[in-house]
């Protein structure tokens, strides 16, 4: 995850931008006029949809994003441009076409279920003048971006002639080009770096019904070879994805809860491009995209994902490395925003020489909630507390060993003599200290909802270990 934070790629998204309009409510009766639900609308929201959701995902991940598309010269088009600009995307390349209707999909959601959707849009191919304007803009942006993403929703922007020209330009400038395709004829995507159809789309395009791993392999290899791609990736919803490069690899995923697959393909396209341009290999990028999609299908509506949410998801599956569990205070604050609803347990200490007493203490502490955060004294703060001969082990070593324990969710070093500032930032539900604090004031007790004292294992301490070593 650190490699993804180290670089901010610049990406160009080309495709069908649209508005996703949601009417949220509840249903408690059937209409007397017809056998349909009556939805009591309680709130309304408008999000970026289509290629706009790809843009939104890239911005959420931290990329610089430019957008090329065509919208109508109407109120919806004006609203869409305003939303893109407000989010920080470069929308100067978007063309307004007279007489065209900007795509808007309106969904009625009742009790977390989509009841009905109605669309207002133009699906005709964009005009020749609009296509030429987009090509000019594309030629202007290409030298300054790391990759191009084509998000095709079949609404007329990515015409065959225009798409082929963009791929030709990408090759000329040696820029990777990733495609989320649409339709039953993928010939216009020939020569792209990779495509990301879902299972149903890949079945239609390859004319191979995907029903098992053998047919999946045939369909993926057919698309890769016939379209002269470097990679073909077939997304399999909650079952993960299949990668076709020099070899075939099926990558499963574990989505904790699947509420809505809307926009999952957008997230895969965005996260793949983001990870690849940050220097990850295809296998690593696909794994990242897989996790990002798993986060998104746990949300309702076209959704975005952040690096912190992916980080939190990977930790929830216990697939995180020890190194990735070591966080700064600022990183921990961001992560906690992605883990709302969990009961947070906090404890702190020097943990200089890890022993059985520490391990049992931390296991008990973890049992008090969903997540255990360990505040770890820096080397300098230990010297101030225990003298110049301590610590025996450096902060880096102590943090890594602690993070390797299953009971420890995160380790956060701090420089001060007490963890008060860290506790104020984390706002834990439960504060845990040793039983020797009984009758004493526990730092941060006024902040946590609850203080729990845990008995140490008799005779087990770092001081005793040091004494034993010194006498031998």
TrEMBL record:
GO terms for molecular function: ATP binding; heptose 7-phosphate kinase activity; heptose-1-phosphate adenylyltransferase activity; phosphotransferase activity, alcohol group as acceptor. Residues 1-320 are annotated as: Ribokinase. Residues 10-304 form the Carbohydrate kinase PfkB domain. Residues 346-472 are annotated as: Cytidylyltransferase. Keywords: ATP-binding, Carbohydrate metabolism, Kinase, Multifunctional enzyme, Nucleotide-binding, Nucleotidyltransferase, Transferase. It catalyses: D-glycero-beta-D-manno-heptose 1-phosphate + ATP + H(+) = ADP-D-glycero-beta-D-manno-heptose + diphosphate; D-glycero-beta-D-manno-heptose 7-phosphate + ATP = D-glycero-beta-D-manno-heptose 1,7-bisphosphate + ADP + H(+). The active site is at 266. ATP binds at residues 198-201. Its EC number is 2.7.1.167, 2.7.7.70. One of its GO terms (biological process) is ADP-L-glycero-beta-D-manno-heptose biosynthetic process. Coiled coil: none annotated. InterPro entries: Bifunc_HldE, Cyt_trans-like, PfkB_dom, RfaE_dom_I, RfaE_dom_II, Ribokinase-like, Rossmann-like_a/b/a_fold. The keyword Secreted does not apply. Residues 346-440 form the Cytidyltransferase-like domain. Catalyzes the ADP transfer from ATP to D-glycero-beta-D-manno-heptose 1-phosphate, yielding ADP-D-glycero-beta-D-manno-heptose. This is Bifunctional protein HldE. It comes from Sulfurospirillum barnesii (strain ATCC 700032 / DSM 10660 / SES-3). The gene is hldE.
